[in-house]
Structures are given as structure tokens and as C-alpha cells.
Amino acid sequence: MLTNKDEFNIEDFYAHYLKGPKIFQKREALETSYVPEELPHRDKEIKKIAELTACALIGDAPSSFLCYGMTGTGKTATVRYVSQKLTRHARAKKPWWIYVNCNVVSTPYRILAHIYNTISNRERIPPTGLPKDVIFKQLLGLLDQKVGDSVCFLVLDEIDILSDKKGGNEILYDLTRLNENLDYCKTSLIGISNKLNFKKYLDPRVLSSLGGECPIVFHPYNANELADILKKRAAIAFYPGTHEEGVIRYCAALAAEENGDARKALQLLKKAAEIAQRKHSKKILERHVDEARLELEKDQVEEFILGLPFQAKLVLTAIYLISKYFPNHVIISGDVYDVHSELCNLLPKKRKLTERRISDYINELTLAGLICARIKSRGYYGRTKIITLSMGLDMLERILSKEESIAELLNYRPLSLQKDKVKINGAVFKKLY
DNA sequence: TATCCACAGGAAATCAGGGTGT
DNA sequence: ACACCCTGATTTCCTGTGGATA
Hints:
Blueprint: H1 10-19, H2 43-53, E1 65-69, H3 75-89, E2 96-101, H4 108-120, H5 132-147, E3 151-157, H6 160-163, H7 168-176, E4 186-193, H8 204-209, E5 216-218, H9 223-237, H10 245-257, H11 262-278, H12 286-306, H13 310-325, E6 331-332, H14 333-346, H15 355-367, E7 371-377, E8 383-389, H16 393-400, H17 404-407, E9 421-424, E10 427-430
Parallel strand pairs: 1-4, 1-5, 2-3, 3-4
Antiparallel strand pairs: 6-8, 7-8, 9-10
Helix pairs in contact: 2-3, 4-5, 9-10, 9-11, 10-11, 11-12, 13-14, 13-15, 13-16, 14-15
This protein binds a DNA duplex through helix 4, helix 15, strand 7 and strand 8.
């Protein structure tokens, strides 16, 4: 047995945990995938979708439509909610609902395969290998055979991701025209998008068949609405007496600041409850919410960085090393290229990347908010990007050190920056020849 | 004021690695 | 064994450009 006080004893930990007060009654109620019995503050949207889809009850195909709104405004939840009610009211002709998250199922081939496999209830279509048109034909046959004369709803969540992928517009076009090739079954497409400007990139033919001119718009929740949502969920998720209105309102207020994102509000409340339980508190307190907020932020950054492709991590490492060893140096894209290729030389089996590719990684890291890069023209010294880290060196080091092969690079002092420096407008740049 | 640097970033091609049916 | 397919990562090729400097 362990004797050292500082060491973690898993036996004691679990025993202690079980003895503590219980907060969670039904944890799933705080998950975003949970569909509650009532959906507060979405009456208008529910009504619109219900009206649009009602004809499926008598076997007619509703016209396709789009739902817009920022993340956490209840788009997916509302569609799922209506789908449950509709299915409950349908008698003979039960509609089918196929959900596709385009963020997960992200290529045209996989969308077709996913739809096919969901309907057939078996993994009939392999993850790759077949020509698309073959799958398309098989899908048509399956729809007529399995769905018969009912309606099949195809819900494409995060549909905006498709519009900037190659082949994305084609697959949407094909899906909107499914009905023309079907004998019995009818399909209806429901697109869910986070981006309001997504229409711009959409094929006009697809847009018109999706009824793009009058989409259903979901507005962000305000703090009071978020509080209502949380209250209802908390009543299901927690034991009575474990939470007070003040804490709920606090979570709601914090999430309202972040674009009224209900998903964030739920995450925050769940995390706060977990912290309270971990700390053997009988109630969730405001300070648990504060802690939860910090932990969530950290978790998200860490998850994102560790989930990056290796070369992207290496680009980030290059920026980290320059910031660490040359704190007064103004980092430009050229520096990142140089240091990145230095790092590649240190790692066996890692090929150098072209500047073009690294430029894309710099953009991706910027988009994620990990770094800040802005284009600057330096006249005779050319046009480049000025890059700064948007997060603390300590935190970045802690995260990067979790990747084995990168951990050993974190104390490497880049050589390419030690050569020649030049001063322009008081800032130190690499010397140009 | 024309020049010219060091890139930015779009588009298309290529490659490797996973698969298919015949 | 073979021709062919799909995907994601990357390369190749290319045109465009802001603004200090000559």
C-alpha cells in the first residue's frame, strides 16, 4: 500500500467519493444531445417547423428548408423535438429521420454511406472504395424498398461545412433532387447551419430548393431565457436541494455574455456540479461555477491543440520556441518556416513542409485563436505576417509537453534566428540579404 | 513615384494509404 | 492481379500586393 501522503491512493479516493454527498440524479439531462419534454422559448420556431413538416403525417413530402443560428441556439434540439412529436402522431406512415453531422461525416461519399447504413441498419457500404454513383443508385433502391411510401427526412447538421469542401455543392444538389429519381419514397432535406453568410457559397440551385430565401432563424437566448432552460434541466439532473436559483442565474449570465450559447450554459452547470461533487459540497456554489469556467476554457484549448495534426503542432512549437528564446523578436512567417524546418531536421522521419502548407497552418492556428497573425507590408522588406502567441507560454508548454516527440524539443533554442537581425521602426527583424 | 521584396493565398495536381469488384 | 475509387495531406504553380525605399 502507498504510505506517502502526497501519492494518490485510488482505493481511498473511490471510497471517499462514494461517502460524499450526491448531486447528480440524471446526468444525461445536461447533455446537449438530451431532448427534453418541453423546449422553452422556441415556440415560434417549433410552430414553423411543425407547420412545414406536418404533411408528412399523410405521406406527402414537405419542402426542404434551412435553419440558421449561432451555436447553442437550439436548432438541432428543436428539430429533434419536432421529429419526436411528429413521429408520435404519425399512424400508418411513420416518417424516417436520418441525422448527419457534416462535421463528423464530412465527405460526399461518407454522407451517402452514412444515410445508406443508417436506413439498412447494417454496415453495408464500406468506408471507402466504391464509386459515388454506385452508392447513389443503391441508396435510391434502398429508400424505395425500406421507406416505402413514407417520408424520409434527411437532417444535415452543420451543413455550412460542406459548402467550402470540394464536391460539397454537388452532393447537396444530388440530395435535393432525390425525389426525382424515387418511385415510392419521398425525401425532405433539412439543413442546419451555424453560419449566416453560408448562403453566399451555396449553389443557387441548391439554395432555391432548400427554400433559402426564407429560412428559419434562431436568435441567441438572453440571460433570462437561458436561466429558464437551465432551471428545467437542473430540476431533472440534480437531486432537490443541491442547487439554488442564484447559481443557475449566474451560469446563465456568463453564457449570455458568450453569444447566448445554451450549450455553453449547460456545460458550465454540469462542470460546476462535478466540481461541487468532487469537493464533497452538498450544494453547487458560485465559486464552483467560477472554477468550472476556468477548467472548461483550459480543457477546450488543450483538447484542440492535442487534436491537431502533428505538423500543425510542430508549427505551433516553432512559434512557442521563438517567443520563449527571443521574447523581443517580432515573429514573421519566414521565421516560422525556418524554425519549423530546423525542428523537422531534429526529428527522424519528419519531412519539411513547403512554405505554402505552413502558411495554411498559420491561418488555421489564427482562426482557432491560439495565435494572432496580421498581414504587414514592410515596403522593400516585402509583405509578411506578424505573428504573436495569444496564450501564456506556461500553459502552451504544459500542453505541448504531453506530445512525446514534441516534449523533447521544448528546450531547443532555434539557430536560424540567432544569425543576423535588423531593426525596422524600432522592431527587431531577421536580416535580409 | 516607380520599384521590388517576401510573402499571401487560389487552384489544380500529386501522393500515399485506405478500399472495391472482377 | 488489376483497374479503379475515395480521402486527406501536401506540393506545384501561379498571380497578386502594401508600402518603404531608391
